[in-house]
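Q: Structure for this?
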Amino acid sequence: MSFINNIKKIFRQNIREYGMFIALFLIMIVFTIATDGIFISSRNISNLLNQTGYIAVLAVGMTLVIIIGEIDLSVGFLAGFLGAVAAIAMVSWKLPVIVVIPLVMGFGAIAGVFTALPVAKMGVPSFVASLAGWLIYRGALQMVTLKTGTIVIPNDSFNAIGNGFIPDIPGLDFLPGAHKLTLLLGLVAIALFIFNEIRSRGKKKEYKFDILPVDMFVFQIVFVSLLIFGITWILAGYNGLSWTVVIMLIVTAVYHFLSSETVLGRYIYAVGGNPEAAELSGINVERIILVVFGSMGMLSALSGILFASRLQSATTTAGQLFELDAIAAAYVGGVSAGGGVGKVTGSIIGALVMTSLTSGMNLMGIDISSQYIVRGAVLAVAVIFDVATRRRGK
Amino acid sequence: MNKTLLEMKNITKKFPGVVALDDVNFQVTEGEIHCLVGENGAGKSTLMKVLSGVHPHGNYEGEIIIEGEVQKFFNINDSKKIGIAIIYQELALVPEMTVYENIFLGHEVTNGIKIDWNETIKRSKKVLKKVRLQVNPADKIKELGVGKQQLVEIAKALSMEVKLLLLDEPTSALSEDDSENLLNLLRALKKQGVTCVLISHKLSEIIKIADTVTVLRDGETVGTLSAEKNEITENKLIKLMVGREINDIYPKRNVKKTKDVVFEVKDWNVYDPKRGKQILTDISLNVKKGEIVGFAGLMGSGRTELALSLFGNPDRSRVSGDMYIDGEKINFSHPENAIKKGVAYVSEDRKGNGLILIQDVKQNITLANLKEIAKRGVVDNNAEIKTAKEYTTSLAIKTPSIEQKVLYLSGGNQQKVSLAKWLFVKPDILILDEPTRGIDVGAKYEIHSIMNDLVEQGMSIIMISSELPEILGMSDRIYVLSDGKISGELSIEEADQEKIMHLATN
């Protein structure tokens, strides 16, 4: 019975972290039942993930911004504006895609640093500084798109970012209808995961630290492996991994690693937890603020690229309300408004929860006004749950 | 006159996993000054929270009887109505509001609809007179010093019908002068018939003022001493509090005196542009290897500002002057540089800017020297756990695990975490700002012992303290600061309390 008790104990200790996963899982089950399985179909899941892309990327950056106790409202229109800049760079300046993407992301980083300068150097509230950015980029977006209206992007490789899928391995004829490269990548991911877990367990043993009992350890590995396999299996059933999902996975992996394993990540959490203490501990708080906003700007650019690519054009209203969707995703994902608490992976789950709601309700034919109300209620419940479990977490 | 005002009978309060109060009895006679003492974690605060209704009726066992009547408090307002006023360590004033607005905050004087400001000011003046505070009621709270703010808090309590005034460590943030002033006020209030319960860590203060002392230890009442019977002595109090005798809370150390100056400051001037004020003038000082140099002075004499200006100047004041480490001239533009050169600063305000309360013990310990346990910017989690375990063991930090948030540790253990964090930096010069403020006798002794170990290993310590016995008990040499200037330097042989106070107030 100790196995079940162990599961219960770990579950209870990590209720906050698992809470979001469980909520996502429940939402998926409910919609799957309500739509006679259409929701869980490969095609819908693939679409859902592609729709999440440009918000998820923003939510990742926003997580760090909220962790250091700030906010950035300018990201939506910055994304829209930089998407338009990317379109102009390709259409008018005739620059190749391979140059445009890093160039626009560079612009984004600079824009982010500019928003942060008065915040870091003079203590201007970021709400105000970024509200100014919101107005400025909105104006800038209209200025560059007003003459021509929507700028259509004729570049196929650029448009593949938001619409295309990774190629399959040619010449394999087993499992017809399944995307073989996607399955292969899934298996590689599982192998890497298992290898990593076993290595870290060995190291902990070397240091004589507490480790999970063997049965729990195996259970954890099997559970996560099945989860990864399930997702890849679904995706393999419809064109395989899309480039958007690939980008989303890379951004998540990089930022998760950065925030949880590196010195920079620790400094970010420290600045959020107590800026005065961080400063006295030798952390350059100004620099951390600039770095976090710079990364936010860069991810805004990436979000703008994803969105423009998905629409195959830059429009006058691109980016509208993205910032609020990103902020909502971060809060649903367990980031604390007080600063210093939150996880990048949580925000991704938060973004998935929000798009799942939209997607599921669309499939059920629920009208848009009710959808807003439901999403608002979910946001409220998520934050209340978070605050309640935090208080209990003594 | 010997009527019992308050009786708390058989109070038991349990938290998950801990019995915070175990069958505690607490009795206060009308018109007395009653001190409640005990180590951190002994249950003083919990008892006060039960009394004030923060822990509502039904959440604890036992009875609260006031003037013979059993009371059931469900929230703070219930106890307020009966006439119980609590003044907490952390002041609950609104800095941007005026003195009179603060005094009547929550029970404004109105004429039906509108606040009657004239009457408010009139009544404020009356109650300010009662606490003997000479300020303009229209001054903003933020313009007053901590000592005066404390008096405003008391005035606020007195502006209501108060039967019982509870003060939770009111003097812990005050200078000797302000503390003395406050104690005199309590005596005066006593004459006017106000009953006081005072929670304090300062034994000398308790001995001076208490009529009765109740000692708590591990959630139990272990003794009640009365001044009438001459029972209140330092030895007795310490013995009851810690359950063992500590003859000397300032342990001896064996350090060979050297003449090697490791740290020297010349003609140090600091100007704060935000306050538009010269903070420090022409400070020159030196610290030798293996020495503890005490910095005495009143609140506001510039001790903390001096320490911060030497530690990379995080306040961004205008600083001029020369600083030398091992004879080499240096210049810090950020605490980061100071740390690299082997200087560490343990803050006086561990909750405010010393620790990150929402992070756990291990993260706090490694924060100032993360690069030590990181490879190419990636933190080695296992090395971190190892480091944290080393320091929690060597400093005897009491915590359920190194993953516990420091928020939930007692004051003494928080202070040890703060110390551990700076020892992990492996400094040559350690600046300790009020190293034992607000912590109990046992933990004080431990921290003093650690300090001795450190100087025996060759570290040099600059210790800022408002407690004269600590300055006299721990220092090899003493600088006294007064109004931003060094008003005197004393060797430990020639120093005594009067000389220091004389220099500090001149």
